[in-house]
Amino acid sequence: MTTTNPTRRRMLQVVAGTAVAGLAGCSSTGGQTGGSTATEHDDASSEQHDEGTEHHSEATEHHEEETGHHEEETEHHEEETESGHGHEDGGHGEIGDPTDHAEVAMKTEDGEYHFAPHVVRVNVGGTVTFHNESGSHATAAYHPDNDKPQLVPDGAAAWDSGLLTEQGATFEHTFETEGIYHYYCKPHETLGMIGTVIVGEPDAHDQPALEEPPAELGDEPRHKIEQLNERVNEALGHTH
Ligand SMILES: [Cu+2]
User: For the segment 118-135, what is each residue's pLDDT rounded down to a tens digit?
Assistant: First the structure.
């Protein structure tokens, strides 16, 4: 029940590929560059413009494209470049642009319990694979189907992996609804083992997950969710 059968996985990959093609088409009409779409775009622009120097960094190319139109976006890219794409550093790095697939490790380390990174970001239709690295953990959405308050977008599907006890066990969920999702580890929720998935380019004003966490969750989970929301707002450039 915890592993994904190969056929289903292949199907998901095909679907994910289609989503990329669709996005590439949209973003060429102007809008935010993101993820692999940005890379393709950069390749094209470096062929056109870089007659002398071939070794422009990504950051430089972003500046060339965006300076003048979107000063805020340019600053955002600077931040990302300075600290790198910190998807593997345990959750303290920049969140970056959405991708079609993200991995989250579930671990018990020095008596602490983590989803790492704490926040990941995927495209609409993207998949997150949860990987049990050490200890026994579960991943479940804050959703009424799991007898929890709704901290996922309206209309979003719930998930619940059940307890993963074996090292190396995985569970994956595909996110079809844009928005912010908080999720928890059943045995360790009260110790703050909570994580977040950002799907697409959601409107921060319209997310149940970003509202003040309900009192029924208890102090530690609420505190953790507030921290996660700070990082989400930062990633979305939502500062008020
Ligand atoms: Cu856990």
Answer: 999 999 999 999 999 999
